[in-house]
Every structure is written in C-alpha cells, then in structure tokens.
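Standup notes
- DV: blocked on the single-chain target, sequence here:
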Amino acid sequence: MSQHRAGPDRWIAVVFALLAFVPACGKGTSIGAARPGVTTTDEPEKDTLSSKQILQRGGLCDLDQVVDDPDPDSDEWVIYRIYQLALAADTEENFQAFRALFPDQRNTRQVREMYWPRIRQNVSKYMNEPGEPAYTICRKMKTDDGMKYFVKTADPRQHPPPITIGEADGKRKVLAFTPF
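- DV (later): unblocked, structure below
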C-alpha cells in the first residue's frame, strides 16, 4: 500500500483557501474593527472592574454579606464555626469539634488529613479582621443538597471558594468544602 503525502502544490492550495476567508473577518466582526458605539480610551471608566475585583467578586460579588455574629441555627454559623476552630489551637478537642461539622459518614481520615491542615493554613485569607472568624459571603446559590456559599478571599489570585451546607444527620452540616 502506498501512502500519500501532501506535496507543495497541495499545501499552497490549502493556504490560498484559508486566505479566502480573511476578508470576511473585516469591519463589524469580533476580529475586525470595533462595533459602532464602542470607544477605546486610556482612562478606565467608573464602572470598570479591575481583574482583582472580578476575581474577588467571583464574576461579580453581588451579595457582599458580612457575617460576624450568626444565629447558631444558621448555615452561616456552620461556616463561622469552621473558621473559629481553624483559628484555635491545633488540639484533638478542636479537631473533633471541626469533624462534627461534617456528616457522620464522611471519612474522618480525609477530614483530618485534607481539610483540617489546609483550612488552618488558609483561614486568614477569609477573615475580615486578622484573628477573628468574621467573614464575607460573596454570593449564594441553591443546590439539590442545600445552599452553596462563596466566601470572599483576600488572595487576589483566587476565586471565592465554595462551601455547601445542607441537612445531614438531622443537623446543618458541611456537605462540600474547599479549604483553600
């Protein structure tokens, strides 16, 4: 069986075919000139968001709700308690209180090895004031399991991490967690 290779004439034909499409990308397209009514200036407009603001807002932080003294029966309290324990001493008692915020069927080893050290390392990113567990909810989203909360972060390279709180074991618990 012989194999066919594209010779120089075939490649030239391909290049010319591609070049035939270039004039179609002229004025009025996303590649060509700007649409009428669109102007460009060197000065940012008042409503323009910086890339840091967009990241902090996770695409727009429309809620911006400060949580500093939540109701103990609320989802916000569960998140507050996570941060409170992460700021406390690294003791077995504090870990067990942290572990109790997750469903009973959640693997304790996973919580101890993955969640506990990471949230303790990163908790300061989510605090409104250093050493205080108060935080800001950037936005909320209803899920099939409960409510997903996006917490504002001080790290300009990071999107607000989600935490899903829902019903488990007859209490409000952490169903999904991103500790970094």
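- Follow-up: The two ends are 57 Å apart (CA to CA).
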